Amino acid sequence: MTSAIPRRKTRQVRIGHVWVGSDHPVMVQSMTNTDTADAEGTARQIFELWRAGSEVVRITVNSAEAAAAVPAIWEKLDNWGCRVPLVGDFHFNGDRLLRDYPECAQVLAKYRINPGNVGKGAKRDEKFAFMVEKAIEYQKAVRIGVNWGSLDQAIAARMMDENSRLSQPLPAEAVMREALIVSALESAEQAQSWGLSADQILLSCKVSHVQDLIAVYRDLAGRCDYPLHLGLTEAGMGSKGIVASSAALGVLLQEGIGDTIRISLTPEPGGDRTKEVVVAQELLQTMGLRSFVPLVTACPGCGRTTSTVFQELAQDIQNFLRVQMPIWRTEYPGVEDMKVAVMGCVVNGPGESKLADIGISLPGTGEVPVCPVYIDGEKDVTLKGGRVAEEFQAIVENYVRTRYGEGGSKRREPVQKVIPIVGV
Question: Contacts by 311-320 with C-beta closer than 8 Å and gap 24+?
Fold first, then answer.
């Protein structure tokens, strides 16, 4: 499933074996929240994020112990068959860590550098230049990532002074938004002056408010052709973070802006880190930009559906599909486009089930206790009794094998693109 939304034309940047830019699908990435010095724990979380569908994973590299652990993390992932590109998140001491730990510098596929946290004055230029030199030496991509909360104060002060001298000064918020953009663009220009190719650069200007993010990226998109990473920083926890991120990124993606996204959710205590990957995928898929996992259509419930059977079945099927996808993705190309319907009564149940590839219409309150199953728009079988859930799941499995397996009518041949990974 692909959308006709025209993308903003950008350069194409390689991150390990993953390509980013307007010639490629919008890429999903995520970030670990483990102590990177814990090689085992970090590798396991990276593996889970990758299994969930993260195409690039960012890790914090903030100490000697973390930098020293990166090669060990990569080796563990390689042994597990996980070749996901890793991004090193560098701040105040990134130059020293890249200098002292060359294996770390080689293993990482991309460096994320925040110009506002590199240093001040001449020191800032010296440290930034060294990090850029390492990216050139090892042929790594660089994301120049500017953040509202750590904006280069020299640029902010300069622009505030310039604004104050205008006959009609702009609001402070507008100046700060412009300072974010200028910081990113000037830093990219500076990196290119030191020899970094424009085809190695991605930009981001992340803020924590929806309207600010939309305004910044609209402006930034019109002033450069670098690929842009979208994300609402400090989006928040639970539904608030999901809604805020979806509102901001949805507007920009609809306008063709954005080449890689991350949903920066604050995990609930003991929560699953992979939720940010699931939300990013669901955002892109519901917008018609990409397909990752079969979509389940389910009714919201009403006075006709006092039973929870359809809710439980919809949840079980949705979980089942996600669990199967790491295997199905390679064995059954095209299955990610499959549509499944689990409906709760006779009002919309048969109609929605016929529109799906495979659907079941459960009985509502007071209706005849039978469950017609529709396959490719035609009624196939009627289920009844206490094993409806197991029987319907078996029907779904059989449908996937016959329609997306070898010789299946819905099978799509996978596109294989092998790209050498430099420096690993």
Answer: 311/344, 312/389, 313/342, 313/360, 313/362, 313/388, 313/389, 313/392, 314/342, 316/389, 316/393, 317/342, 317/392, 317/393, 317/396, 320/393, 320/396
CA 18 to chain centre: 13
**Alpha helices (H) in 119-221, listed in sequence order:** 121-138, 153-164, 172-193, 210-221
Regions of the chain with pLDDT less than 50 = 416-424
Do 31 and 20 touch, CB atoms closer than 8 A?
no
Cα–Cα distance between 117 and 183 in angstroms, integer? 12
For residue 414, what pLDDT is reported? 64
Separation between Cα atoms, residue 392 and residue 386, nearest integer Å: 12
Q: Is 352 annotated as a binding residue?
A: yes
Give the per-residue pLDDT at 417.
41
Comparing C-alpha atoms, which of 159, 186, 153 is closest to residue 171?
Answer: 159
Token pair for residue 369?
């206790």
Nearest-angstrom CA–CA distance, 145 and 89: 10
C-alpha 331/C-alpha 335 separation (Å) is 9
The response to whether 103 counts as a known ligand-binding position is no
CA atoms in the 13 A half-sphere facing the CB of 201: 23
- Percent of the chain scoring above 90 in pLDDT: 88
Measured between alpha carbons, how far is 185 from 226 in angstroms, rounded to an integer?
10
Sign of the CA dihedral running 299, 236, 148, 184: negative
What six digits make up the tokens of 261? 């996204």
**For the chain, what is the mean pLDDT?**
94
Query: For residue 171, how many other CB atoms are within 10 A of its CB?
Result: 9
Query: 324 Cβ partners below 8 Å, 6+ apart?
Result: 400
- Round to whole Å and give the CA distance between 136 and 199: 11
Alpha-carbon span 150 to 156, nearest angstrom: 11
CA angle 218, 242, 11 (to 5 degrees): 35
Q: How many CA atoms lie within 13 A of 93 on its CB side?
A: 12
